[in-house]
Write a structure and sequence with these properties.
13 helices, mainly alpha
C-alpha cells in the first residue's frame, strides 16, 4: 500500500466524519446516515492501515476518530444487572467450557504429579527428614497438631477472606502471566501441587492420610478446580502467542485476553465459595462424611454449571468474549 496515496484519497472522508462529530446541533436524518457510513468506512481504513502500512501518528488519529464515531453511533452504554446476568449465565461458563481441552488435562496431570510426590515423600523417610526435622514432623502430624489446627487458627470470617484473597491472586496471576508463553503458569501450578504433595506424604507417613483428606477435600475440590481452570486458560493464552491460528496474533491475543480477564472475575466468585467452605465448613464439628459431601456437591454444581450452561452458550455462538458491537473494528483474515 502506498500510504501517501491512500491518505490523499480518503482524507476528505475523515475530515467530513470529524466535522459531523463536532456538530453542536442535532444531526438531520441524512447527516446521521452519512455519519454511520463514514464511521464504517473509516473503521475499515484503520484496519487496512494497521495490517498493511502501520503508521503510529495516523493510526492514533484514526483510532480516536473511530472511537468517537462508535460512541456517537451506539450511544453511551452503562453496565446493568442484565450484563451481570448475561456474564454469569452465558459469558463466564462459555469461556470455561471452551477452555476445557486445556484445563481438564492440566487437572489430571497435576493431580497425578501431586499424588506421585506424596507417595515418594511418604515412602522415603530420608526425604521426609530433608523437609522437616523428626520432632517437627511429629508436631505437624499428631492429633491436634498443626495440620489440623491450621483451619481453626483464626476466626472463620477473617480466615475465609484471607484464603479467598490468596487464591484469587494466584488464579489471576495464572491468567495474566500466561501471555509469557505459559512458563510462569507452570511454576505457580508446580508450587501448588508440591505443597499438596508434601501434605499428602507427611500425613500418610504418620498413618493419618484419612484425616488429611477429610480436611482438604471439602474446600479443595472446588478450589483446585478453579486453579486448574486458571492455569489451563493461562497456558492456552501462552500457546496463542506461538500459534494464533487463522487470526492475526494481535487479534487472537485481544480476544483470548479479554476472555481471560472475564474469567478472572468469574473465578474470583468461585473461589469466594471455596473460601467460605474452607473458613466455615472445614473446621466445623460436622462429621467427615458431611464435610466432604458439601465439597462434592459444590464441585458437582460448578461442573454442571460449566458443562450445561457453558456448553449451551458455546453451541449458540458465545465465546466468552465481549459482544461484537463493543469490539474494535477489524477486517476478515484469510485462513
Amino acid at each position: 500500500m502506498d500510504l501517501d496515496v491512500f491518505v490523499a484519497t480518503h482524507r476528505a472522508e475523515w475530515d467530513r466524519l470529524d466535522a459531523l462529530l463536532r456538530r453542536q446541533r442535532r444531526l438531520t436524518g441524512t447527516e446521521a446516515d452519512e455519519l454511520v457510513a463514514l464511521y464504517q468506512r473509516t473503521a475499515t481504513h484503520l484496519s487496512l492501515i494497521q495490517s498493511s502500512a502501520p503508521d503510529p501518528r495516523l493510526t492514533g488519529r484514526l483510532s480516536q476518530l473511530v472511537a468517537r464515531a462508535r460512541s456517537a453511533v451506539t450511544g453511551t452504554r452503562r453496565a446493568s444487572w442484565r450484563d451481570v446476568t448475561s456474564f454469569l449465565g452465558h459469558g463466564f461458563p462459555a469461556a470455561v467450557y471452551r477452555s476445557r481441552h486445556w484445563w481438564v488435562p492440566t487437572a489430571l496431570l497435576s493431580t497425578a504429579i501431586s499424588v506421585l510426590l506424596g507417595w515418594w515423600i511418604g515412602t522415603h523417610p530420608e526425604v521426609q527428614s530433608s523437609i522437616v526435622a523428626p520432632s517437627q514432623l511429629r508436631e505437624l502430624t499428631r492429633p491436634g497438631g498443626e495440620y489440623e489446627t491450621y483451619y481453626s487458627s483464626h476466626p472463620a470470617a477473617s480466615f475465609a477472606a484471607q484464603v479467598w484473597t490468596n487464591n484469587a491472586q494466584a488464579a489471576a496471576m495464572c491468567l495474566v502471566l500466561g501471555v509469557f508463553l505459559g512458563l510462569p503458569v507452570l511454576w505457580i501450578l508446580f508450587e501448588n501441587m508440591l505443597n499438596l504433595g508434601v501434605g499428602l506424604g507427611l500425613m500418610s507417613s504418620a498413618g493419618r492420610l484419612d484425616t488429611f483428606l477429610g480436611l482438604v477435600l471439602p474446600h479443595g475440590l472446588l478450589e483446585l478446580t478453579a486453579v486448574f481452570v486458571a492455569a489451563g486458560t493461562g497456558l492456552r493464552l501462552g500457546w496463542t502467542v506461538v500459534d494464533p491460528g487463522p487470526r492475526s496474533r494481535r487479534t487472537a491475543l485481544a480476544e483470548e485476553g479479554r476472555a481471560a480477564v472475564g474469567m478472572a472475575i468469574g473465578l474470583a466468585l468461585v473461589l469466594f465459595v471455596s473460601g467460605a467452605i474452607e473458613g466455615f465448613v472445614t473446621p466445623s464439628g460436622l462429621p467427615t462424611w458431611a464435610r466432604i459431601g458439601i465439597g462434592v456437591l459444590a464441585e458437582l454444581a460448578f461442573l454442571t454449571y460449566v458443562y450445561v450452561l457453558g456448553g449451551r452458550a458455546v453451541r449458540a455462538g458465545d465465546t466468552g468474549d465481549i459482544d461484537t458491537a463493543e469490539r474494535s473494528a477489524s477486517v476478515p483474515t484469510a485462513a
